[in-house]
UniProtKB/TrEMBL annotation:
<dbReference type="InterPro" id="IPR000836">
    <property type="entry name" value="PRTase_dom"/>
</dbReference>
<protein>
    <recommendedName>
        <fullName>Phosphoribosyltransferase domain-containing protein</fullName>
    </recommendedName>
</protein>
<feature type="domain" description="Phosphoribosyltransferase">
    <location>
        <begin position="53"/>
        <end position="168"/>
    </location>
</feature>
<dbReference type="Pfam" id="PF00156">
    <property type="entry name" value="Pribosyltran"/>
</dbReference>
<dbReference type="GO" id="GO:0016740">
    <property type="term" value="F:transferase activity"/>
</dbReference>
<keyword id="KW-0315">Glutamine amidotransferase</keyword>
<keyword id="KW-0808">Transferase</keyword>
<dbReference type="InterPro" id="IPR029057">
    <property type="entry name" value="PRTase-like"/>
</dbReference>
Amino acid sequence: EAILIPPDGRLESRQCVNGKISPCIFEYIYLARPDSMLNGISVYEFQLELGRRLAKRIKGRREDEDWEIDVVVPVPDGSRPSAIEIAQCLDLPYREGLVKNRYVGRTFIMPDQRTRELSVRRKLNAMRSVFNGKKVLLVDDSIVRGTTMSQIVQMCRAAGATKVYLASAAPPVKHPNVYGVDMPSREEFVAHNREEEGVCDLLGADGLIYQTVEDMLQAGRGMNPQIERFDASCFDGDYVSGDVDEVYLDALSGAGRGKGRKGATAPAR
């Protein structure tokens, strides 16, 4: 779009190129409220569909690797729709085992690791009556840095859980987001340069399963076929603008959280 300011001061705008909408799919997974409608898609219904698709994968994992699950517990709040659907599809009880402190902000957007770690302990409390003696499937909307999840696993075990399995309604986050979400550094992501088993070990869980990228994209396209392409770059590294390269990503990482924030800055684009 071009904004024209002629000598008489009368503003004009003209669309120079017919663009195609490519919404960020991470917004539907993590950022948007469940009662939101974004680009004709109900966020709540989308998250339910993620749960249905993930339930099929969990069913296979239970058969192939003998996952014994007594109860499904969501990590509040964003994972509830997916967790409810997973419990229903697998015919398992659903319980609210983690109580959230409403006066602590989102750990994902806090500025440094130490602040995030301290906030997790203040943010959630595990109910012993739900976890004691149980094999638990914890469902989260996504696992980005692992800060929250590793401590939650410890909380569940301290509350008496005998097994803790993890299910992420989103695929593994492996790439920076360059379009507005503060996720600049690949080194921060728990799935960076790690396979699923390595992430599971690092988080201290007994098992881990992710959503697939294809199932996630199919869920979105199925709810609005007019959207030909979602931006899923933080999952697949495919940036919709087509102008993001390794040089830019390295500079962006240097300009991100921590010591590097005072150093290099990302080049103009």
